[in-house]
Write a structure and sequence with these properties.
With about 325 residues, the chain is α+β, with helices and mostly antiparallel strands. The protein is built from six helices and 14 strands. The longest helix is centred in the last third of the chain and has 22 residues.
């Protein structure tokens, strides 16, 4: 079974992909992403790999015969890809060279453009899940790309807010937010000519940093060569900062927010950024989303962002001292 089902209470589609339950548990001495597995080339640096158990497909099956006048279904149209960061099974992003991470950024741009070319796809989502604390069972360094046939609810909310703000102020909501954080300063972790990494005023997670493009860009494919190099280095240093925070490979969910595709004009009001959702609230404690966060999206951060920003700046300085 692979289909979309309409959730009328929140006006959103839910992916139903029961076939993913059949995914095998990988043996400890074999990895499909390692050279020699028979699943990938013997030699590669970064690689696009079509997901073996996709939740979305460009040739989706017909939905199950369960729709009624009230319950709505739709084909699970889209694309699911895996992006392999390195042939090294345990290599981490900070351990890769700047040039290698730049190749990864270029591959992200290439795949964003390729998925965007399918007019049925309305949102291209690049993301990475890292660490057992967020449910990762495959330690080989990789991220994923989903191409959705609908704009996900959170992105809808962002787009609506951005368009309302632009209609009222005549300016980009994200640009003004970035300037406000830079002017205040205390939550900025580090910045360079092209990108700023900061802990937002409203962050839902203790270490939930945002990475913003300093220039007004709608998606990753719009970056020039210099910006792509800068994004590679900024991402590498952000993950290195996380790893230096508690001196272990820090778990996180990394979510790239690009403007929707094939569904309107976002040139004036949307702004590329990356959101990190690390599950840790201290070195040995996980911040679980309890009833408030899960049931009604009423988030509660158990830390003070200005204080945790100081921790992150110190971790960044420790990491940079090792380079």
């Amino acid at each position: 079974m692979a289909e979309l089902r309409w959730h009328p209470l929140i006006k959103d589609w839910v992916m139903i992909a029961s076939h993913r339950q059949a995914r095998p548990q990988m043996p400890k001495d074999w990895c499909p992403f390692c050279p020699g597995s028979g699943k990938v080339p013997e030699h590669y640096e970064v690689l696009k790999y079509d997901n073996d158990f996709p939740a979305l497909s460009q040739a989706p099956p017909l939905p199950d015969d369960v729709a009624t006048d009230f319950f709505k279904t739709a084909p699970a149209y889209g694309k699911c890809e895996v992006i392999l960061y390195s042939p090294g099974h345990t290599t981490t992003l900070p351990e890769l060279s700047d040039a290698h991470v730049e190749k990864l950024v270029n591959l992200w741009c290439e795949r964003f453009t390729a998925l965007k070319a399918d007019e049925k796809i309305k949102y291209v989502f690049l993301f990475e899940n890292r660490g057992e604390a967020v449910g990762v069972t495959m330690p080989h360094p990789h991220g994923q790309i989903y191409g959705y046939s609908v704009i996900p609810k959170k992105i809808q909310l962002e787009v609506e807010s951005a368009k309302e703000y632009y209609a009222e102020k005549g300016k980009c909501l994200f640009c003004d937010m970035l300037k406000a954080e830079q002017d205040f300063g205390k939550r900025v972790i580090f910045q360079n000519e092209h990108f700023t990494v900061f802990l937002p005023f409203f962050t839902e997670y203790p270490y939930g940093v945002y990475l913003f493009s300093n220039r007004h860009r709608q998606n990753i494919a719009q970056f020039d060569a210099e910006e792509r190099r800068a994004l590679a280095v900024t991402l590498k240093h952000t993950v290195g900062m996380f790893d230096a925070l508690f001196d272990y490979k820090f778990p996180y969910m990394m979510c790239m927010h690009n403007a929707p595709v094939n569904s309107g004009d976002y040139e004036k009001d949307y702004h590329f950024h990356i959101e990190f959702f690390p599950p840790m609230r201290s070195a040995d404690k996980v911040k679980f989303n309890a009833s408030s966060e899960t049931g009604c999206w009423a988030h509660c951060n158990p830390t003070c962002p200005e204080n945790t920003a100081q921790e992150l700046r110190a971790a960044y300085e420790r990491y940079m001292a090792t380079l």
